[in-house]
Structure formats: structure tokens, C-alpha cells
From TrEMBL:
PANTHER family: DIPHOSPHOMEVALONATE DECARBOXYLASE. GO terms for molecular function: ATP binding; diphosphomevalonate decarboxylase activity. Residues 7-165 form the Diphosphomevalonate decarboxylase-like N-terminal domain. This is diphosphomevalonate decarboxylase. Belongs to the diphosphomevalonate decarboxylase family. One of its GO terms (biological process) is isopentenyl diphosphate biosynthetic process, mevalonate pathway. The gene is mvaD. Residues 181-306 form the Mvd1 C-terminal domain. Keywords: ATP-binding, Lipid biosynthesis, Lipid metabolism, Lyase, Nucleotide-binding. It comes from the Bacteria. It is an enzyme of class 4 (lyase).
């Protein structure tokens, strides 16, 4: 009862920021992402009758505390679906993503865990069922079931049965590139979950954010189908700025940005002014992702690497969905 799966992380172009229901991780809005080939998690789940509890190893180190509890609670969902509630697992994950620094490590992590765990215990889930299951571990992870562009539909049902991701366009549809600009790989002070909750409950800017989403979604989906880079980039960048504005209105206010984050943002805008089409987006962390086209890769990478405070630039193409190894 053993399986290994690999999942890639994704970058949200239309952000998920806020839950309408905490326990089931049901979002307040639809979101849309691009799966990236450069960041991924490979996870092996091995259910064994001899075990009396789950064991979780991440990058060859035993995990305890809150991170362990999230994993074993998620394995409980898999055990419940299979009816094999007395089986425990050895879980071994290798994470090629900086953890808790705004690179969506939980997205690839829980997607790989869901896929490997479900396969190991004998569940035969469709992509939709796997996405719905994965959502209950980490919301953004439900989009990593698919390669290319995917949309997480928020759904309306209280049980979450209509809240899952659907594919929008395959990775072969459009060769769009993403440079992940690494400023910090340290753990952020305010987690995504805590920041999201505080913003929903206290920020007066939050209702305006929600009202803007349908128009952004319609526009960016049209841009993806038309392969209109300027349209997609402009909408993604504006959507990112609106999301981060809500955190400044929270009580107490907070931001995920560092001074170098702002330097990267300004540099990207300068590149555009100089004729290089590039746009930024930022998740809940200080690190910046820059969208660009293949023909501009060398110039974009060189410019980003020369910014003071940038420690690395990692280049990605559109990535694949779940694969089994």
C-alpha cells in the first residue's frame, strides 16, 4: 500500500484571499492560477499495519507540531474515504519549494500528499474528486492537480461538494514564463491562514476586493484564450495589488512586503517603460514572481539578478499536473 506522486506549485494570477468557511476551506471568491514546472514536491505515502501512528519526514527530517498535525488530519480524510481508519502511514516528502515564504509550498505539498495517499490506500479518484479532497488540506493545492491554467470554483454548497478546480488551458496552450525572484526563504511572520482571516474580519477594503473579482476573472480568461500577454499581465498585476491593499486596512495592519519587494516591483515597471513586457504578482510573502515571454528571458533574468537584495532568480515554464512515479 505504497505510492509516490509529484505535484508542482502554482502561482495565482487571480488571488484566493479569504474563506467563507474555515473548516472545509471554502473560499470567498473564484481564483485562477498557472502551474509552474520549476517548483514541486515529491511525496511517498506507505500505509503499514505495523504502525501505531503516522510518521512524516520532510526533506529527510522528522516533522512534529502543527505541521505534523495538519498532515495526519488530512490523512484521516483519506482513511475515512477508504474505510481503512486503522491504517497509519510513513510519509516522506522532498520539497523543491522554499517553505512558508510566499512560494505556495503547501499547494504542491498537499496536492502530492493527496495523490500519493489516495493511490496508496486504493482509492480511484477522478481529477475533480482529487481536487475537492486536496482543497481540504490547503486551498490553493486544489489547483495543482492540473497543469497549465486552472480555476478554483468557490461553489455555493455548505458541504463544499461544488468547490474544486477545473482546467482552463493546458501547459501546451501558451508558452508563458515566470521568474521567481527570491528575496527571503525565511518563515513569514503572519501565515497565509492567519493573515487571510484577519483581513476578512477587519479590513474595510475587503468588500471592494471581492466585488472586483468577477470582472478580473472574465478578462484574464479571455486574455489566456487569446494569448494576449499585456492583458493577462496587467490584470494579474492589478489583482495582486488589490489583494495586498486589503492587508494594510486590517486591524492590526500588516504587509508581506520587504523593501526589496518594492525594488523588484519598481524594476518590473521600469522594464515595461523600456519596451520589455513584464508584469509582477506576489502571493502571501515577500518574494515576487515576474511574468514574461520567452524571447525576453535573458534580459529579464539579468535585470532581476542585478537588483540589490535579490538572492536568486528561478525560471519556470508552465508545469504539469499530478504525476505518479
Amino acid at each position: 500500500m505504497k505510492a509516490t506522486a509529484r505535484a508542482h506549485t502554482n502561482i495565482a494570477l487571480i488571488k484566493y484571499w479569504g474563506k467563507r468557511e474555515e473548516a472545509l476551506i471554502l473560499p470567498t471568491n473564484n481564483s485562477l492560477s498557472l502551474t509552474l514546472d520549476g517548483f514541486y514536491t515529491t511525496t511517498t505515502v506507505d500505509f503499514r499495519e505495523a504502525l501505531s501512528q503516522d510518521v512524516f519526514m520532510l526533506n529527510d527530517e522528522a516533522v512534529t507540531g502543527e505541521a505534523y498535525q495538519r498532515v495526519t488530519k488530512f490523512l484521516d480524510l483519506i482513511r475515512g474515504l477508504s474505510g481503512k481508519t486503522d491504517l497509519y502511514a510513513n510519509v516522506h516528502s522532498i520539497n523543491e519549494v522554499p517553505t512558508a515564504a510566499g512560494f505556495a509550498s503547501s499547494a504542491s505539498g498537499f496536492a502530492a500528499l493527496a495523490a500519493a495517499g489516495a493511490k496508496a490506500i486504493g482509492l480511484n479518484l477522478s481529477d475533480q474528486e482529487l481536487s475537492r479532497l486536496t482543497r481540504q488540506g490547503s486551498g490553493s493545492a486544489c489547483r495543482s492537480i492540473y497543469g497549465g491554467f486552472a480555476e478554483w470554483e468557490m461553489g455555493t454548497r455548505q458541504d463544499g461538494s461544488d468547490s474544486y478546480a477545473v482546467p482552463i488551458a493546458s501547459k501546451e496552450h501558451w508558452d508563458i514564463r515566470v521568474a521567481a525572484v527570491v528575496l527571503s526563504s525565511t518563515m513569514k511572520k503572519v501565515s497565509s491562514r492567519a493573515g487571510m482571516k484577519r483581513t476578512v474580519e477587519t479590513s474595510p477594503f475587503y468588500p471592494g476586493w471581492i466585488e472586483s473579482i468577477p470582472n478580473d476573472l472574465n478578462g484574464i480568461k479571455a486574455g489566456i484564450q487569446e494569448k494576449d500577454f499585456e492583458k493577462v499581465g496587467a490584470i494579474a498585476e492589478a489583482n495582486c495589488l488589490k489583494m495586498h491593499a486589503t492587508t494594510l486596512g486590517a486591524n492590526p495592519p500588516f504587509t508581506y512586503w520587504h523593501d526589496t519587494t518594492l525594488r523588484v516591483m519598481h524594476t518590473v515597471q521600469e522594464m515595461r517603460a523600456n519596451g520589455i513586457p513584464a508584469y509582477f504578482t506576489i502571493d502571501a510573502g515577500p518574494n515576487v514572481k515576474v511574468l514574461y515571454l520567452p524571447e525576453d528571458e535573458a534580459r529579464v533574468e539579468e535585470t532581476l539578478r542585478n537588483i540589490a537584495g535579490v538572492t536568486d532568480v528561478r525560471l519556470s515554464k508552465a508545469g504539469s499536473g499530478i504525476t505518479y512515479l
